Amino acid sequence: MIGEIIDVTTFLDGSGALSVLECDQGLPFIVRRVYYIYGVEEGAVRGAHAHQSSEQIIVCVAGHCRVTLNNGFELQTVNLDTRDKALYINSCVWREIEFSTEDAILLVLADKKYSEKECIRDYDEFLHFVGVL
Ligand code: TYD
User: Fold this and answer.
1) Exposed (0-12), middle (13-18) or buried (19+): which is 15, by Cβ within 10 Å?
2) Active site includes 49?
3) Which residue has its alpha carbon closest to ligand 1 atom 17?
């Protein structure tokens, strides 16, 4: 397994659901950045990069996304279509995220502020980085 599925504590009552990720209770790091991606055409793929040092947790808070993780040696595909599951992605993992439905909204929690420098966007460079090439 490359990514880790995290059960998000969810409180259900007569008026809907509340899901929570809290430090040391599902969240393995201190969150320094939050962003969300939406309005992506059905079937389009985003991502296609890896982070040298940043860890992330992603939650598909609406719709359905299909995530492919690649550590240079093996692949893992994860369907994210429920609000009570999150996916932890460590650094040095190439990720491609298909927005399988038009209404998909992907919430991303990261342990670091944004840095383009630590982002690897070239696949061969990634394979070098993880020691495959
Ligand atoms: P990008 O990483 O290419 O998105 P994706 O991998 O989902 O296709 O980011 C798109 C743009 O947003 C790019 O110009 C960088 C910018 N950006 C920030 O400025 N801060 C951030 O935290 C993120 C994630 C992206």
Assistant:
1) exposed
2) yes
3) 114
Record the tokens describing residue 30, joined without a space: 């201190």
Place of tokens 């696949």: 123
Atom of ligand 1 nearest to the CA of 48: 6
Closest CA to 26 of 83, 88, 113, 73: 88
Torsion angle, alpha carbons of 119, 65, 38, 22, to 10: -70
Q: What is the C-alpha to C-alpha distance for residues 105 and 38, in angstroms, rounded to an integer?
A: 5
pLDDT in tens, 35-87: 999 999 999 999 999 999 999 999 999 999 999 999 999 999 999 999 999 99
SS3 content of the chain, % helix, strand, coil (to 5): 10, 50, 40
pTM, full prediction: 0.97
